[in-house]
Design brief:
RNA Cap, Translation Initiation Factor Eif4e, 7 helices, seven-stranded antiparallel beta sheet, RNA 7-methylguanosine cap binding, about 30% helix, about 20% strand, alpha+beta
Length: about 260
C-alpha cells in the first residue's frame, strides 16, 4: 500500500525557543498582517477629494413655507448639500463612483467632486474669483463623459492645464460637477481664477484632447462663465477685490447654469 510522502527536515537547523515564540505570537502575526496590508494599500491620490450630493427639495411646500420662502432673497443652498464620502486613494474613488449611479439622479439634482476643504458654492473663499467651463452633454453620453472628466481630475491632468509660474495668485482646479437637466446633463470644471485666460484656454484644450472621439463636444455646447456673473451670486463680506494666495491644505500625505442652483 502506497504511503503519502513525508517532508523531512533532518538537514535544517533547529529553531530556537525564542525564535519560535516570536514567529507564532499574536503580536508578531498582527505586525506581519499590518505590513502586508501596507504593501497592498492602493496608491494615494495627489489631493484629497470630497464627494457631494445636491438633492433638490421635491416636497410640496405648505402655505406657511411658501410665504417664508418668498420673503427670503435666496434659499440656503448649502442646506441641500450632503457630503457622501472622502476620497484619498484610487480605491476610495472607484468605490464611490461605482456605487453612485448618476443616470438615476432626479431632474435638477447634482453631484460634485471637489478638493477637500472647498465647498461647491460660488461664494466659497476659493471660488469667489473663479469660474467654470460648462459642457452640455446629451443624457445618453452623460455617464461616460462624467467618468472621463473624473479621471482627468483625480489624475491631475486638469490641474496641470491651469498651473503657471505666477508669483501672485496661483490658479487651481477646485472641483467638478454634474447636474441633471431635461434632455442633457451639465458637466462643469471649476477653477479658482476667472481672469487667468491662458489657463482657461488650456483647460478646454486638455479636455478636448483627452476625451474619446465619440465624446468630443460640439461647437456651441460649452462655454466659460465667471461665478460672479451669475444672477444669483452673492458676494461674501470681506472678500478682497483681487485674488490672494490661500494656503494649500488638501494634499494627501505621501505613504441650467451651474451646479449651484440659485437661479
Amino acid at each position: 500500500m502506497a504511503h503519502a510522502p513525508k517532508l523531512t527536515t533532518s538537514n535544517l537547523p533547529t529553531l530556537s525557543e525564542d525564535a519560535a515564540s516570536a514567529t507564532s505570537s499574536p503580536a508578531r502575526g498582527k505586525e506581519m498582517r499590518q505590513n502586508l496590508l501596507g504593501k497592498l494599500r492602493p496608491p494615494p491620490l495627489v489631493h484629497s477629494w470630497e464627494f457631494y450630493h445636491d438633492r433638490q427639495d421635491r416636497k410640496k411646500p405648505s402655505q406657511e413655507e411658501s410665504a417664508s420662502a418668498s420673503s427670503q432673497a435666496q434659499p440656503n443652498y448649502e442646506d441641500r448639500l450632503v457630503k457622501l464620502n472622502d476620497i484619498t486613494d484610487v480605491r476610495d474613488f472607484w468605490e464611490t463612483f461605482n456605487n453612485f449611479d448618476t443616470t438615476r439622479l432626479p431632474l435638477r439634482d447634482s453631484v460634485h467632486l471637489f478638493h477637500k476643504g472647498v465647498k461647491p458654492v460660488w461664494e466659497d473663499k476659493r471660488n469667489v474669483h473663479g469660474g467654470s467651463w460648462t459642457f452640455r452633454v446629451p443624457k445618453a453620453q452623460g455617464a461616460e463623459f462624467w467618468k472621463e472628466i473624473c479621471m482627468m481630475a483625480i489624475g491631475e491632468k486638469l490641474q496641470a492645464a491651469v498651473e503657471s509660474n505666477r508669483k501672485t495668485f496661483v490658479d487651481d482646479i477646485c472641483g467638478i460637477s454634474l447636474s441633471v437637466r431635461f434632455t442633457s446633463v451639465l458637466v462643469q470644471i471649476w477653477n479658482r481664477d476667472g481672469n487667468h485666460k491662458a489657463a482657461i484656454d488650456r483647460l478646454l484644450e486638455t479636455v478636448i484632447e483627452e476625451l474619446p472621439e465619440q465624446l468630443t463636444p460640439k461647437e456651441g455646447t460649452y462655454y466659460y462663465k465667471k461665478h460672479d456673473e451669475h444672477a444669483g451670486y452673492q458676494k461674501p463680506e470681506g472678500v478682497p477685490a483681487k485674488p490672494t494666495i490661500i494656503e494649500e491644505t488638501n494634499t494627501v500625505p505621501k505613504a441650467d447654469d451651474g451646479a449651484k442652483a440659485h437661479e
